[in-house]
Amino acid sequence: MPRLMIDEQVIEVPSGTKVIDAAEMLGIMIPRFCYHEALGSVGACRMCAVKFVDGPVKGIQMSCMVDAQDGMVVSTMDEEAVAFRKFIIECLMLNHPHDCPVCDEGGQCLLQDETVSGGHGIRKYLGKKRTYRDQYLGPFIAHEMNRCIHCYRCARFYQEYTGYRDLGVMQIGSRVFFGRHGDGALESPFAGNLVDLCPTGVYTDKAARYRARHWDLERAPSLCIHCSLGCSTVANARYREVLRVEARLNPAVNGYFICDRGRFGYGYSSHPKRPRQARISGRGLPVEQVAAWAAGQLKGIEEGHGPRAVAAVGSSRASLETLTALKSLCEARGWRGPHCFADEGQAAKTSRAVARLSSHLAVSMKDIESADFILAAGLDAVQEAPMLAVAMRQAFRGGAVIGVLDPRPVSLPFAFRHIPVPPWEMDEALRAVMGEGIPASNPDFADSPCRESKEGLTFLRDRLRQSIRPMVVCSTSVISPTAPDTAADIALSLRRVGKDAGLFYVLPGPNSYGAAWLSRDRAGSFLETVQAVEDGSVKALVVAEADLFRDFPDRSRLDAALQKLELLLVLDCLPTETAWRSHAFLPTTSIFECDASFANQEGRIQRAFAVHAPGLPIWQETGHRHPVREFRGEIPGGDPMPAWSILSDLHRELSPEKEALPEPRRLLEDDFPGLASAPAEELHAVGWRVVPESGAFPAESTGASPSDEKSDAMKPSPDQFLLLLVEATFGTEELSGYSPFLRKVEPEPRLWMHSADAAEMGFSEGETLHIATDGGPVAATLTLSQSMARSTLILPRHMHLDWQKLRGSRRLVARSDMSRAV
Amino acid sequence: MSDMVDQVLFRNRKPDRIATLEEYRAGGGYEAFARVLRENAPREVPKIIDASGLRGRGGAGFPCARKWMAVPEGGPFPRYVAVNSDEMEPGTFKDRVLIHADPHSILEGMAIAAFAISAEKGYIFVRPSYENAARILEREAERARDAGFLGKNILGSGFSFDIIVHRSGGRYICGEASALLKALMGKRPNPVKAPPFPTDKGLWERPTLVNNVETLANVPHIIRNGPDWFKGLARTPTGSGTKLYCVSGRVNRPGCFELPMGTPLSEIIEQHAGGLPEGRRFKACLPGGASTRFMTAEHYDIEMDFDSLASVGHRLGTAAIMVFDDRTCLVGVTLNLIEFFARESCGWCTPCREGIPYVRDLLWRIEHGEGREEHIPQLREMSRHLWNAYCAFAPGAASPVESLLTFFEDEVREHISQKKCPFGGR
Amino acid sequence: MAESAHPRELIVDVLLELQEHYGYVNDEAMSLACDLFDMTPLEIDELATFYDFIYREPVGKHVIHVCDSAICWMNGYESVLNLLSARLGIKYGETTPDGLFTLLPACCIGYCDRSPAMMVNRKVYGSLTPEKVDRILERCRNGGRPEESDETER
Ligand SMILES: Cc1cc2nc3c(=O)[nH]c(=O)nc-3n(C[C@H](O)[C@H](O)[C@H](O)COP(=O)(O)O)c2cc1C
Ligand code: SF4
Ligand code: FES
């Protein structure tokens, strides 16, 4: 632990700490541009110069390049150092366009700050300014190269940190240019981070362009709820609308960065079709009136048919506050539910995962970065949980071997060993990597196009044996129902042989852990409830922030069932089909309008804070971007309320004591006992993991029994395919599906098939294929791949596809049901 | 007139052609290599070189053997030798002349260096304008290979080594050792700061030696004739060996001369380069290429070696002596040099990328009659700041500017007061 | 390339080779290089645009680089440049309409002992006089390539 003195203050820091960071620990913020904790030191900008007065290093040096050492005496305000830094700022401003008045970075611009703090005010340089031609970089990011100060952060992030290869550095000397080879959309789904990283306004958020000055924005710490990782964000709003989302540093989860789905997916909250008014049978009414009517209806049904005639449904996108309230309401009233997974397979796998995650096995994304071996089962990280791919890349950069067992043609921004294991082989393959015998005679491996499957498994097995910090990553999307258990078994046995092993699940939604946890001792599945609706024993459904039509695999069946209901009460903030079909509808707030908690896939509870009050965005109200200049008591379109408070009111209406539910915080602490002891500061900064010490709950009580999801039931016969509905980075996730910006980058939905299968069937790349279903064909363009599992079909659960017609996220399709569109 | 002194590197130099392998061998060529293969353990070789006092000829003057010995004995394999023949320092052309005189001395030097650090592959990094040199080296390496001096199991010793000629795309910064290695690996040649040193982690993270052409060409001669002989070649007590001095600019016979290390400047200019043209007076020179300081007539008789120059605040650099006479505008010269540096800056760090063009702007104004009094302190301050750049490029650029202001401030002032170049722009 | 443990070390050679063939590194050359090295166009361009002697814009059959560094400056490179400009009717950075010549500057090409000097297609000509420049241009026009450069290769 070196001890050094910086500006007369002594500090002891861990060895390997750079002087710039040691100073920061003392609260001394040495100016910097190129240095970034995540990207490391490169010494390019020379802004962080300080004087080493005494000790092992002497003279002016870059504090980002020098490790703190014993006996160093550092002065940050030494005259020579100050003069040099001033020179650097002057240099950086020589060619800068000084267009701060029209630059969206203005107000949060590091260059502005350092120019002011460096005391550079008067321009001496008389020469001409250099100018560049900007590039079109796609719908998300605007490019203004004239503002560039050449810190190389963008290229380092893009290529080194995230492993994408279409943005970098060209030219030399004062002509150095950062950009693409030519105009075109950036290929990286992490490119949005350039906006945060660029210390000036070269890369700015196109979606938010010219919408607000930084100081006009209301800002609040928020969370990304577009996948189960739960990255930390900052939401920025103005005029009752979120305009920008930035990454927020969370050292345990996402570090400094987020993906573009998380950054540009906020548009659902200000969707023009967002239902903002309470309704009965489609007619807009005051909230209280609708709530009272619904309560009356529910009371009548309870009285007429007993409390079991009411069932409640939540979802994994609803907050913990909402889910705990829903659960308490069900318990208090004796209703069925809540069910949070309309898809039984998902329910089962998520339950298994949550059941098996224990506090000594659970690891965070940060931990993934330091793995030396990663075994990913059924995971296509960039598509399902994008930032996980970035974390895995950091492990790769540190030398980790990464094996991916997945039927999809997985592509990741680093080198890895892909074995296209079909779901029905997953458990066997996983066990093979564990050393329980390589499936030698397995026909699917033998004639797999990846003939090296066997060799690959052997390779992974050997590297796993050598590893010290192996991580098992398992997504619940396309794997077999038993794979989450197999993954946990593997992690456990690695622990037993003394490895520092970890287990990391990827779950279907942002609050899947919470949802599964809260329904852990609840019997019955949503399917059973649907049956109960069909047979008339359930008369009312209370749906909190769930779209049954999106999630339930059998659309026509659901359709028929809902028609039998006496009451469909829906609470939501999205313009879902379920909402339009409701008898009574109550509008709820989005994550940006009410404080909310979510438990991410590792059981970490995190908090998001409201950034603006609910209400119609001003441009939607007025048609232009200025507020109306009149005084009003209430906010137009301001009816939405937190779902939990609506549920609490409902409880009050229904309960004989006329009592509301306890405070959300109480409810949360009751359900997650660990939470009460969480220090508020830590809870807000990195969240609090509530995973119990040994597995969450017993295996039996996991709700659904996935009869049709048994491993062998999924194995296609020679005249069948196994169809897998999968996630895509853009275009399949529910919330971001309502974001106009993201629609611009959604790829056209494609059906993937193995080249050899296609050859057998006489199909070729680019053809439109039909998959016949009862409800008519589902059409998609065919893409061929050599690196996917044979006898499988991969189809993204894309918004533009009627994939619900396919009934089930995994199903067998007869080859004869596949045909070329005419 | 060069034949007046002992010629070592140029002993086989011909006016119209290069020395053949046979000619090289006839003078004892490849004997040194054969001898170390036969008689020495690899680790003994640097000791001999160390005793000779050989210092790097690429500009920095780093003791050659110290670098060789820095390669860790237990370090990983394969290891590499990279020969720096980028030679883009303005005024410098000695490596070119040497390659055109006696290429095998370089190849043999490389082979011995490779043996010393147990390297198996050597790269010669050649700039585009030396395409001839690249072809010569390729051809002669082939001949050495045919003669059994390169390739597998050389002379039955079990030691294998081969040489590849690498053509550069052309940039001055590629001569900087760490940038050169990146260029060789097909990466953008921005310099990288040590540590790690190339001797620990060079090409593809393996120990790599980077030496100048001339440095290595001395090695066979040292082995053959002994370190004491080499030391004795110099004219000064702390110098050793001979030096290839390039003389250019205002002299009657510009050229590259091999002379004892420490030969006085006046002697080099007058006896070897034919002196200045009739009626011209020596005003100053850059003693070691564009990135050294202007040296005035005060040091006209200085012994041109590392230590003598250092003792008066100058650098031997590449020993490329650029001579300027009393009718040459040194502001103009400096402006031209700064143009060069501005054009060639790799663009990695701020002081160099932005600061040098800034300096150029001010010098341009002064040279073209738009200079102002305050530009002088401004230039002084800016060139001082250039020393805190990322690599040695920018300090190199600062050197002529600083020395211009130190020794020729009056000349600069005259530009400002007369609002034009008193030399008519030349 | 197959022999190389690190194919990327050959990238500049390949670019120079492609340039030899296409005249400059055009889009086709670029995509060939991308395929050969499994690199993206951006990655190739990161290197190609770094170097002085890799052309990413069309150039003439004969690319003339006039050395304009210190010694050639002292020895009147400007008159060489002016002469070339007058003879060819082009300025720095331009190509003659017949596509024969492109005129570019060069940093010190290491022929200060034979200054002023210039390069034509990577061959160097020193101690330039107006007559010599004319001769070189003439030879380029007639024979396609100037025969001998100043320095021996033998
Ligand atoms: C900007 C810059 C350019 C350089 N160019 C060359 C060069 O062209 N040739 C050379 O041998 N050394 C050059 N050097 C010096 C090298 O970095 C390195 O010190 C040298 O090649 C080591 O060889 P030596 O020890 O044999 O001298 C240059 C250094 C800098 C900073
Ligand atoms: S001083 Fe900086 S910009 Fe200049 S060459 Fe060195 S690293 Fe590149
Ligand atoms: S922050 Fe240290 S050099 Fe840029």
Summarize the structure.
Chain B has helices at 21-26, 31-39, 44-52, 64-69, 94-101, 103-117, 131-146, 177-184, 213-225, 227-233, 265-272, 306-311, 330-344, 350-367, 375-386, 393-407, 409-418; strands spanning 80-85, 121-126, 162-167, 208-212, 242-249, 255-260, 282-286, 295-296, 320-325. Chain B has 426 residues and is an alpha/beta fold.
Quick one: biggest sheet of chain C?
4 strands, mixed
**DSSP, total strands of chain C:** 4
Percentage of β-strand residues of chain C: 5-15%
What is the highest CATH level, the class of the largest domain in chain C?
Answer: Alpha Beta
How are the strands of the largest sheet of chain A arranged? 14-13-24-23-22-15-16
Kindly name the structural category of chain A: alpha/beta
Biggest interchain interface, per-side counts:
B-C, 59 and 44 residues
State the major sheet of chain A.
7 strands, mixed
Instruction: Estimate the mean pLDDT confidence of chain C.
Output: 91
Shape of chain C: elongated
Unreliable segments of 5+ consecutive residues of chain C: none
What name does the CATH topology of the largest domain in chain C carry?
Answer: Glutaredoxin
User: What Rg of chain A do the Cα atoms give?
Assistant: 28 Å
Any idea what the CATH superfamily of the largest domain in chain C is called?
Glutaredoxin
Class per helix and strand makeup of chain C: alpha+beta
Strand order of the largest sheet of chain C: 2-1-3-4
Spans of chain A with pLDDT under 50 lasting ≥5 residues? 440-451, 698-709
The portion of residues forming beta strands of chain A comes to 15-25%
Features:
heterotrimer; A: alpha/beta; seven-stranded mixed β-sheet; 28% helix; B: 426 residues; alpha/beta; five-stranded mixed β-sheet; four-stranded parallel β-sheet; 17 helices; 9 strands; binds iron/sulfur cluster; binds FE2/S2 (inorganic) cluster
Question: Can you give a write-up of this model?
Answer:
The complex is a heterotrimer of chains A (822), B (426) and C (154). Chain A is α/β, with parallel strands linked by helices and 822 residues long. In chain A, the strands form eight sheets. Chain A has a seven-stranded mixed β-sheet with strand order 14-13-24-23-22-15-16, with helices on both faces. In chain A, strands 33-28-32-29-31-30-34 form a seven-stranded mixed β-sheet. Chain A has a five-stranded mixed β-sheet with strand order 2-1-5-3-4, with helices on both faces. In chain A, strand 3 (49-54) and strand 4 form a beta hairpin. Chain B contains 17 helices and nine strands. Chain B has helices spanning 21-26, 31-39, 44-52, 64-69, 94-101, 103-117, 131-146, 177-184, 213-225, 227-233, 265-272, 306-311, 330-344, 350-367, 375-386, 393-407, 409-418, and strands spanning 80-85, 121-126, 162-167, 208-212, 242-249, 255-260, 282-286, 295-296, 320-325. In chain B, helix 2 runs parallel beside helix 6 and helix 15 runs antiparallel to helix 16. Chain C is an alpha+beta fold. Chain C has helices at residues 11-22, 27-37, 41-48, 70-74, 77-88, 130-143; strands spanning 62-67, 101-106, 118-120, 123-125. Chain C has a four-stranded mixed β-sheet with strand order 2-1-3-4, covered by helices on one side. In chain C, helix 1 (11-22) runs antiparallel to helix 2 (27-37) and helix 2 (27-37) packs across helix 3 (41-48). The longest helix of chain C is centred in the C-terminal third of the chain and has 14 residues, at 130-143. Chain C is elongated and about 50 Å long. The structure holds flavin mononucleotide (FMN), iron/sulfur cluster and FE2/S2 (inorganic) cluster (FES). Residues 32-35, 43-48, 62, 64 of chain A line the site of FE2/S2 (inorganic) cluster.
